[in-house]
Amino acid sequence: MKLSEIGEFGLIKEIKKACGRKAEGILIGIGDDAAAVKAGGKTILLSSDMLVEGVHFDLRYTSYRELGHKILAVNLSDIFAMGGRPKFFLINIGIPERCGVNDIKNIYGGMKRLASKHSVAIIGGDTSASGRHLVLSGTIMGEADRVITRNGARQGNGIFIAGTLGDSAIGLEILKQVKGQRAKGREKTYLCKRHLMPEPEPLEKTKDVTAMIDVSDGLLIDLSHICDESGVGAVIYEEKIPFSEELKSVSSQTGRSPLGYALKGGEDFVLLFTSSAKQRKDAVRIGEITGRGRYIIDSKGKKKPFKAEGYEHFRK
Question: Which residues of 35-57 are buried (b: 16+ CB within 10 A; e: fewer)?
Answer without folding.
Answer: bbbeeeeebbbbbebbbebeebb
